[in-house]
Design a protein that fits this description.
With 98 residues, this protein is mostly helical. It is built from 4 helices and no strands. The radius of gyration is 18 Å and the shape is flat. The two termini are 23 Å apart.
Length: 98
C-alpha cells in the first residue's frame, strides 16, 4: 500500500521490486483495500469518527511536515533516478544490481 499510494509506484514496478508478478500485487492490494473498508465501517458503526480531535495537539501540522518530506523524496528520486528502497535504476526498471 505504501509503495502504491505514497511512493506512487505502479503495480508492475512493485512486482519487479518484490519479485512477484503484477497480478499478485493486484490481488494483495484488493485484499488490503477490502480489509480497510471493513475496518472503517466497523469504526463508523461504533461512532469512533464522531469524535473531534483535541485542539492544539499539533497533529495536522505534523502530518503536513510528513507529507512535505514524502513529496521531497519522491521529487528527488525522480530527478536522480534512484529508488528510495536502494539501488540505482537500470534499464529493466528494477532497483539494485539486478
Amino acid at each position: 500500500m505504501t509503495l502504491y499510494y505514497y511512493e506512487e509506484m505502479t503495480m508492475r514496478e512493485i512486482g519487479l521490486a518484490l519479485g512477484v508478478v503484477e497480478s499478485r500485487v493486484s490481488q494483495v492490494h484488493a485484499s488490503a483495500v477490502m480489509h480497510l473498508r471493513v475496518a472503517l465501517k466497523d469504526l463508523a458503526a461504533r461512532g469512533t469518527f464522531d469524535r473531534t480531535p483535541p485542539q492544539g495537539a499539533g497533529g495536522s501540522a505534523a502530518l503536513r511536515v510528513q507529507e512535505e518530506r514524502r513529496a521531497g523524496r519522491r521529487a528527488e528520486s525522480r530527478v536522480t533516478g534512484v529508488k528510495e528502497m536502494g539501488g540505482k535504476r537500470n534499464g529493466n526498471g528494477r532497483g539494485g544490481n539486478g
